[in-house]
Amino acid sequence: MANAGAKKRREENLKHMRFLQILVLAANGVYILGRVVIFSSSVTWKHYVGMMLTSGAYQLSYNWIKDLSLPTYDDKGDLTDGGYDLKTPGLCSYLHDLLYITAFVQFGSLISDKVWYTYLLIPAFGLYKLWTELLYPYFFLSQKAEPEDEVSRKKREKAERKANRPKFAKARR
User: Fold this and answer.
1) 100 vs 21, 97, 160, CA distance in Å?
2) What SS3 state is found at 77?
3) What is the pLDDT of residue 141?
4) How far is Cα of residue 168 from the mean position of the Cα atoms in its chain?
5) Looking at residues 152-170, what average pLDDT do you find?
């Protein structure tokens, strides 16, 4: 039998997934209606490639979030876990960002085709995270520090003890 927290998370995840589903369907519907039906004279092959690109981004991120949000049940059919908390930072928030950027690009591209350049934020952020989390620490921070000699160790320990001492202020009279 699941606790109230798991049931609450399951309900929150269901509501959130409904919201994301409406967002994806609305963005695709508005894009198709606006670009293909209303502005059909300005449609080029690039717009169809863009539609396939955004559809792939939606498919990837939405299905991944959906898989994370699925609750687990035991053999008797009782709820054991309400699913992943979709509000936690990390991979799940990056997937949400991908969905929101894709929806923004689709809505904005009805006004100007230059909005597609916003999609360059995704690989730029990926390169930034790759550099700051993996490459920079590996190449520049992995050098081993020299062993500390006795004098510098004693100085460091004395400074740490002095910094950890409680400091009292005189009371005013």
Assistant:
1) 12, 5, 47
2) coil
3) 75
4) 45
5) 81
Give the torsion through C-alpha atoms of 159, 163, 165, 168, to 10 deg.
130
Q: How many whole angstroms separate alpha carbon 19 and alpha carbon 136? A: 38
For residue range 3-33, list pLDDT tens digits in order: 788 888 889 989 999 999 999 999 999 988 9
The helix/strand/coil state of 109 is coil
Radius of gyration of the chain (CA): 26
- Nearest CA among 47, 49, 50, 25 for reference residue 37: 47
d(CA 102, CA 119): 7
Which region, left, alpha or beta, applies to residue 64 given φ > 0 means left and ψ of -120 to 50 means alpha? alpha
Asked if residue 83 lies in contact with residue 2, where contact means CB atoms within 8 angstroms, the answer is no
Break the chain into its structural domains and give their ranges: 4-113
Beta bridge partners of 81: 72
In a 3-state reduction of DSSP, which class is residue 20? helix
Instruction: Give residue for tokens 């000699």.
Output: 149
65-86 pLDDT per residue, tens: 999 888 888 888 788 888 888 8
